[in-house]
Amino acid sequence: MAKAPKDIIAASDLIKAAWKKYAGAATFGGMTETQYEAKIKPSYDIRTQIGDLEKQLTQLIADRDLADQVTNDTNGLVIKGIVGDVAYGDNSDLYGACGYVRKSEKKSGLTRKNSKNAQPKSTPGK
Q1: Using one digit for the tens of pLDDT, what is the confidence trace for 51-69?
Q2: How much is the pTM?
Q3: Alpha carbon 111 to its chain's center
Q4: How many other CB atoms are found less than 10 A from the CB of residue 41?
């Protein structure tokens, strides 16, 4: 089973420290300690690049959010301009094409029960 990337670096750090402390001049796997460090260096370099890219992504997301706020505010101004324009307004095809529900297409939502046909509630025993 493959080790997790974090575990690989932790194991490499332990091997480097132990090799340096106990057998600095020895060769293992056909490598000196310096050759070993050179061979595993790409794993560390790539992690550094990933960290830099994650910071860049975080900043880009924040920049996008700010830009989106400006865009959203600008969209609101345009829609308010359409609604306030006597040639267009909130019942125009333009307003509907912008993704909004035209005034004539909205339902009032008000419902009233027919009180003429309703019978009064009777209480039992009276």
Answers
A1: 999 999 999 999 999 999 9
A2: 0.63
A3: 41
A4: 10
